[in-house]
Amino acid sequence: MSTTEEPITSYAKAPTKTLTARGTTFAYRELGPKGGIPVVFFVHLAATLDNWDPRIVDAIAKTRHVITFNQRGVGASSGTVPDTIEQATDDAYTFITKGLRYDKIDIFSFSIGGFIAQDLVVKHPDLVRKLVLTGTGPRGGKNIDKVVGVTYWDIFRSVITRSDPKEFLFFNRNKVGKKAGKAFVERLKERTADRDKPISTTAFRTQLKAIQRFGRSAPSDLSVITQPTLIANGDYDRMVPSILSADLHQRIKGSELIIYPNSGHGGIFQYWEQFAPVAAKFLAP
Questions:
Q1: Is there a domain that residue 65 lies in?
Q2: Considering the chain, what is the average pLDDT of its residues?
Q3: Which residues, 6+ apart, have CB-to-CB distance to 5 below 8 Å?
Q4: Tens digits of per-residue pLDDT, 232-284?
Q5: Where is the AB hydrolase-1 domain (predicted)?
Q6: Which terminus of the chain, N or C, has less C-beta within 10 A?
Q7: Quick check: helix, strand or coil at residue 171?
Q8: How many Å is the Cα radius of gyration of the chain?
């Protein structure tokens, strides 16, 4: 009697795995039905495998094979965090094509993950079928390089209020935003076993330098992106200014743009009930 193993559809229960490609051991998790083109998630500044909102991951994993991973030097991945987005892009390419051995993927990205995703599509257009860019902006985008000051200020504010920095960085500091921020942080705690290592202070600072360089670089020609693209953000993103989402929309022909009201960098997490089904439908096989 043969049995078919049911796919894992809860991110909180997806086991952490590792693979080694070109000398780097990458930590990753996968869930959802296997087969076909996977959706690879590119995470935000200072984030590890434990920083993805399970409500969004699980919604997409109902019908798609989802893979989340740590960049080199982050969490349980080995090596040193690169100080440029270009190198982070090359590392992601190595993980996907040499480690996982995929030649076609869909991408779901957030924040710095969106910077890497854009560079990856521009450099390797045949690799990507569909692209989701959230809370992000284009290379050379106005005021991206100011994220360092915003980040340190919000970390300071979180320390003196004994809060999670993401409550300040991702959400507005009004009644609605505070409630959404606390709910988001609680969702990230749903996984209780096999949690990832937090990012080191050195790695975090190196990522900030990479973002600063990205913001001060010459713009990429995003007109070469012809893949179906979904762009989303809150209307008051202090980390990657919301106007840059509109900028991306103008540069990427045929892209879709969603701006959620009364929300910040984490608009997709504040409005997960609306956004998750939209993202899942967009990424449908």
A1: yes
A2: 96
A3: none
A4: 999 999 999 999 999 999 999 999 999 999 999 999 999 999 999 999 999 99
A5: 39-269
A6: N
A7: coil
A8: 18
- Give me the domain span that covers residue 178: 12-282
User: Is the pLDDT score of 201 beyond 60?
Assistant: yes
Distance between CA 104 and CA 37 in Å, rounded? Answer: 6
C-alpha 118, offset from chain centre: 12
Vertex 67: Cα angle to 64 and 72 (nearest 5): 165
User: Comparing 156 with 242, which gets the higher pLDDT?
Assistant: 242
In 3D space, the residue among 16, 42, 50 whose CA is nearest the CA of residue 31 turns out to be 16
Residue tagged 């969004």 (tokens)? 56
Q: Tally Cβ neighbours within 10 Å of residue 261.
A: 11
Count CB neighbours of 283 within 10 A. Answer: 23
User: What's residue 4's pLDDT?
Assistant: 56
Residue 207 gets the label, from left (phi > 0), alpha (psi -120 to 50) or beta, of: alpha
180's tokens: 């959404």
- Cα torsion through 88, 90, 91, 97, rounded to 10: 140
Q: Is residue 30 part of a domain?
A: yes
In 3-state terms the chain splits into helix, strand, coil percentages (rounded to 5) of 40, 15, 40
Tokens read off for 277: 């089904």
Q: Are strands 24-31 and 16-21 parallel, antiparallel or unpaired?
A: antiparallel
Which residue spans within 78-198 are E strands per DSSP? 105-110, 128-134
What DSSP string runs through 180-234? HHHHHHHHTT---SSPPPPPPHHHHHHHHHHHHHHHTSPPP-GGG--S-EEEEEE
Residue 5 included in any domain? no
Tell me the one-letter amino acid at 149. G
- CATH number at 33 reads 3.40.50.1820
Domain count, the chain: 1
Nearest one of 102, 127, 99 to 35, comparing CA atoms: 102
